[in-house]
Each structure stands twice: as structure tokens, then as C-alpha cells.
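Listing 4. Sequential folding, example run.
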Amino acid sequence: MAANLRTTLTGVGTLLPEIERGSGLTSSWGGLLSTLPLLTFAATSPLVARASHRWGSTRLLVASLGVLAVGTVVRSLPSVICLFAGTVILSSAIAFGNVLLPALIRRSVPTHRIQSVSALYVTVMGLMAAVSSGISAPLAHTVPGSWHTALAWGVAFTVAAFFAWLPRMRGDKPQATAGGSHSPVPWRSRIAWQVTFFMGLQSLAFYTAVAWLPSILIDRGASSTTAGWMLFYYQVVSLAASSLLPLLTRGRHDQRWTAAGASVLVAAGFTVLVAAPALSVVACTLLGLGGGASLVLALTFQSQRAGSSGEAAALAGMAQSIGYLVAAAGPLLLGILHDTTHSWTLPLTVLAVLGIVTAVAGHGAGRDRHIAVPHEAVGRGGG
């Protein structure tokens, strides 16, 4: 499942200049295309916990994989309407996987292994995202159908995951039929809001980099293929950071300074892009180190800060609905700022400042505490 959560999204950034030329989209529309998955995540994520309670997590995962395959194919059809409609369909499917995996980990994995298992699926997710970024532009130049075909190559992994999950549907029982209660969304929990904003701001940095880093590098003289491989390098570094983080923080329950430090690295990466654009390798290294660690922590917090799998699903739904709404501002804002100023200096400066804000949210979210859920709300099954 993790192999399908970023593959269909990260290749778009590499292909965005060609998509804009081929379909006549402006930078603002290109920013909207990059933002659309995040808006869809924000709209869909609140529905997942209740649907999981009613239908069962495994059934929802299998259904979402089927929808993801359909959306990927629709997006690759030669039509601007299909480009946007397919993006909404596949993003809705990914939103279910985003929310359900932290809850499944909380239900199935001992507490002391949550971060390691979260890092494992983030590593797989990041590996596929990096591969997609690296090969999408070369594919567009070599296969029939150009960028349309390059947008759809990941459907092979979606079909494979669909058939891998099918046998697991047999033992999946919805909590509603088993008498389980639906955990409320922890709107009144301070630490839940800190987890939410940390999730949103680190996602804003990631999706903005994925959407616009190739365009920034191309604007400064790099070829589309070189820019694509720089995005690949950024994600490989991110992959290494997400893999090593559990080893470096093993046994630590308080993650405040780890989250804050990772966010500062991201801010430093954007600062280098502004102050010394020739040092793009250094910038990508800093962005990858900080971003990879931040993603593992953001997803781990959604499991660790909850007392049960139901609470984890509720917290993940909150963190990812509001968090992705925050993140959605990134690609669109950068596109608008670039169109207005005809420069990347102001957009990158804004991202550097937001990196410091992320550090503050991460410091709060990293505390070794559980969210406080009112018992009477749990008993009602509402919230």
C-alpha cells in the first residue's frame, strides 16, 4: 500500500513544465494541479475513520486501490478535464491509505516498534516517490503518448497491491458489527493540534518542493532531465534520513528536539536556494535530511499520541484533513507569487520562514504524551 501513496503524485512535478506547454496551463493552473491532491486529502480524510468503523479497514484499503487504478488511468487520457478529474479520483483513494495505515500500525504493532514500522513504510513510500520523480521525464521523452503515458506508469504497482490485499479481506470485521465504539475527533486536545500543524507544515514543504523544485532549477539553466534527477536526489536523501531516524532515536520517547531540528534543516535548505542557488546539491541535501525525518515523525506521532487504534484513526483524520489543507496552500501560493514577482526569491523566503514555524509545532508534537479524549464522547460514539 505504501508503494502507491506517492508514486502517482511526485512525477507530476518533473513533468509540470511539459504538461503546461502541452495543455496550455499557466503557472497558477500548474500550481492548482499540484495543490489539488492536497485539497482532496483535506476533504476526504475526515470521512475515513467513520467509514473504517462501519466497513472495516482492509475492505476500505482494497476498494481504495481499485479507485486509485481507475483514477490513474483517467488522469493520463488526452484531456485537460480528465487530467484534473483523474487527479481528484486518485487523490481520494490515496487519502484513505494515508489515514488507515497509522491506525493499522497502532492496532497491530507493539508500542516500542511503532516508529520503526512507520519508518519502514515511509521508506518504501519515499523510494517509489523518488523513482517516479527520476524516471518520469525520461519516460515522457521515450514512450508513445509523451507525458500522458508517463503519468500512468505506476498503475502496475496499484494492481499488484490490489491482488495482494484481496485475501486479507476474509478476516476483516467492521468495528460497528463487533460492538466497538467510534472514537471522536480530538478537537480540544492541544497536542492533537500540534501534531496537526506539524503534519501540515512539513507536508507543505514536501509537496511544494516536489511540485516546483524542477521548475526552479530549470528557470536557472538546468535541463528538465537534470532537474528531474535533482528531485530524485532530494528524495533519495529523504529516504536515507527516514530509514536512519529510528536507529538514531531508538529508546527515546521524547522527540521534541528531533522534530524541531529536522524542521530547521528544511528551513536552511530553502535559505540556500535563495542565497546561493548554485549550491542546489547542498540545498537538496538539507531539504532531504530534514524532510525525511519530519515525515517519519509526523506519521509516527499520529500513532504514538493515540491510546488505541480508533483514536489513532481519529487523530490521523484530523491531522491529515486540516494538515493537508495547510499544505495545499504551498504549491498554489508559490505559483501565484512567482507569476506576480517573476522571481523565486520571495516564494523561497516564505518557505524558509515557515520552516521555523514548523520547528515550533514539532517541538510541541514531540512531547511523550497521549491526546485527551473525553470518556463520555467515546461512550456516545460521537464527536
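-- end of first protein; second protein begins --
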Amino acid sequence: MTRIELSVTGQAPPERADAARNRRKILDAASRLVREQGPQAVTMNAVAHAAGMGVGTVYRRFGDASQLFLALLDDSEQRFQQAFLSGPPPLGPGAPAAERLRAFLHALADRIVEQREIMQLAEAASPSARYSSGVYAMLFAHTSMLLREARPEADTAMLAHLLLAPFVPSLFEHLTMRRGMTSERIKAGIDDLLGVAHDVSQDPVRPVDGAS
């Protein structure tokens, strides 16, 4: 079985140690504000206060709040990619492909639930940009690779797109905030979806209702 080796995308060039520490402090402070008070609480002044540094440092590092939001998404995306590319199984290498796919989709659901509000800001700004982004390319490549190992007989490119289609913040907003569904229920639905896809592949020809 041919295995595609992927690498983490979007990694920033090396920084001086003090610059890297400041970046980490700012991102951690902004992440806490989003988690505790929502993205509307993230102003450059608020982040500077939470990080214990001057607001000028925050502006010099990120420019404005929109750039800070993008940096937050990029930072969490790099951590997520590292986890599924080189972390422990079943999310990382070492587990069967079907188990890795299940763990990957569960982790992706957790990531969207956790950062739904920030992701919605990006989605609202440019809904179609998702499919031309490096992040989506990485998710698609990883999903396709696992599907090729688990289901070599399937149209894995199409199936990868269809499996990733529900993983958008607007749907998770609807499910969690408007319908009151928990992350556990969403993951159970993902498991059902994977099971249905497998069952259909085992019995591809099914008569329609009323057919003999």
C-alpha cells in the first residue's frame, strides 16, 4: 500500500526566543479571552492586559484584531496537524486506517466546537475560500489517504469531500447552539455516518421501495 507522507502546513519561519515567547503569551491570552468571554472580547488592549505586556507590543506583532484571529486559527491548526500526522495513535500513525479516520473526524469535530466562533468570522468573510485554502487541502489529503487504505475500492476523492462537507462552523453552530446537541451526540452521528458508508459499500445494489 502506497503511503503519502504529509507535513504540517503554514509553519512560520524560526523566531528569536524572546519574540517566540511574546507570540506564545499573546496567543494564549487571546485564546483565554475567546474561551471565557467570546471573540467580541478580543481587543488589542484586552489581549495586552491579559498577556501582561504593552499594547504596542501586541500591535507590532499582529497589526490588528483580525490578524490576531487568523493567527489563533493558524496556531491551533498547526497543533491539530501535528497531532494527526505524528502524534500518538489512534489519531496519529500506528493504528488501522479506519480507526485513524474515526479519531481524525472526532478530533476535527472537537476543534470546530472549541473554535466555532472564530471560524465563523472567517467563514462569513469568504465562504468559498475554505476550498482553496491550504488547511482544507491538508484535511482533504489526509482523509483521502486514510480512505485509500481503508476502502481502496471506493471513489476516495469524492468520499473525502463528502465526509468533510459537514465540518463547517455554521452547521456546528446550528447543532450545538440552536438544537442543543452535545459534542458526544455529534460524534455518535459521525460514527453512524461512517457505519452507513461502510454498509452501503458492502451491498451497493439495493432495490428502491416497491421494486421487485
